[in-house]
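Q: Please design a sequence for this.
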């Protein structure tokens, strides 16, 4: 069961949040001081920390979520740069918080940066979680696995293509785990989630005083990934100005921090991903053709679920076992007719949508998932 440390100055917040998370089958610890938190984490394998205003957890070495009553763009940027996996304001969006925690529980959170233990001096413990397997028996998904095995040991840059929810990040993680860089950092950046005016600072870092909120020097994702793999998700959404600097970094293996004048050498293998038709984006002038050729030494196409229908039964049974275990309930069975109906759904959201549908069916069904439940709770 996932163990969550709640670290807030106010008892009311501790009590209300603890009550809700316990109802959702999380184990919680409620504390109001950093020193008590440090002692707790020496004795317990805490999985994540939810932190309130006025709490200093720099160097925590654990996934953490920042909750504030005074939200602002600057505080959000600072929290994320300090390693927060999410930033929430009061009143809390509980659905978003629970989804973040459940992604963490599945070891499937695309916003977590994995850093080697030796680089973090912290008294906090973290239980390492294994990367999920690529589930399926179809020829299409077997081809993806073969491509990973062939390409991973090389230093070639890889462009992973596919629709939303197909598992592009999982492919990137396996490319790293099967590479010679597997003991070095795997660092992720979602190019679509970062405002255009901040993307350069996020990728290349910045010097103190280079802009209003730059109160001290920060390393960017390229430096943090030095010696390892940098996964640039949704690369097709990157601003053209940043594309030019990424191209230089790939060409010269060096970067310059925002506001700096010193070249910093970096040794990074870049794996990029996009759900866009990148060639069409080039024609529209939204993406640099020279950068595309730098990124796409190898291309791996991750098939949509509609092209691997024979994998749906395997995926559904896998999700049922995984979700029931997470909810600490007896594994539910599913009727063959229900499987047949699921195989004939469109699944525009691909595996992510299928996972959500199975979770919904488990919550709303009795001991057995029926065809009637699929018709009632799963949209065509």
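A: Design:
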């Amino acid at each position: 069961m996932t163990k969550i440390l709640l670290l807030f100055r106010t008892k009311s917040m501790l009590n209300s949040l603890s009550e809700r998370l316990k109802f959702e089958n999380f184990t919680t610890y409620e504390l109001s001081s950093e020193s008590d938190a440090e002692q707790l984490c020496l004795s317990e394998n805490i999985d994540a920390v939810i932190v309130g205003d006025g709490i200093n957890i720099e160097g925590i070495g654990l996934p953490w979520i920042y909750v504030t009553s005074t939200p602002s763009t600057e505080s959000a940027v600072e929290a994320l740069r300090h390693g927060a996996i999410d930033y929430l304001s009061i009143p809390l969006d509980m659905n978003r918080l629970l989804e973040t925690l459940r992604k963490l529980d599945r070891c499937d959170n695309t916003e977590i940066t994995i850093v080697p233990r030796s680089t973090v001096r912290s008294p906090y413990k973290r239980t390492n979680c294994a990367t999920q397997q690529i589930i399926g028996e179809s020829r299409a998904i077997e081809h993806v696995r073969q491509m990973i095995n062939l390409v991973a040991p090389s230093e070639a840059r890889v462009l992973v293509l596919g629709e939303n929810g197909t598992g592009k990040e999982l492919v990137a993680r396996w490319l790293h785990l099967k590479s010679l860089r597997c003991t070095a950092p795997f660092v992720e950046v979602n190019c679509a989630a970062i405002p255009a005016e901040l993307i350069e600072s996020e990728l290349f870092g910045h010097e103190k005083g280079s802009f209003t909120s730059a109160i001290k020097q920060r390393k960017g994702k390229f430096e943090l990934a030095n010696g390892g793999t940098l996964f640039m998700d949704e690369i097709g959404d990157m601003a053209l100005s940043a594309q030019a600097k990424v191209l230089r970094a790939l060409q010269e293996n060096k970067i310059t921090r925002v506001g700096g004048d010193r070249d910093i050498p970096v040794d990074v293998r870049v794996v990029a991903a996009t759900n866009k038709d990148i060639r069409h984006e080039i024609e529209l002038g939204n993406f640099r053709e020279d950068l595309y050729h730098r990124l796409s030494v190898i291309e791996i196409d991750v098939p949509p679920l509609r092209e691997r229908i024979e994998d749906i039964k395997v995926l559904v049974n896998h999700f049922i076992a995984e979700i029931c275990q997470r909810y600490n309930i007896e594994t539910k069975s599913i009727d063959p007719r229900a499987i047949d109906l699921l195989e004939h759904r469109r699944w525009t959201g691909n595996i992510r949508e299928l996972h959500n549908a199975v979770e919904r069916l488990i919550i709303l069904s009795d001991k057995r998932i029926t065809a009637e439940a699929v018709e009632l709770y799963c949209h065509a």
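Q: Thanks. Anything notable?
A: The mean pLDDT is 86. The radius of gyration is 22 Å.
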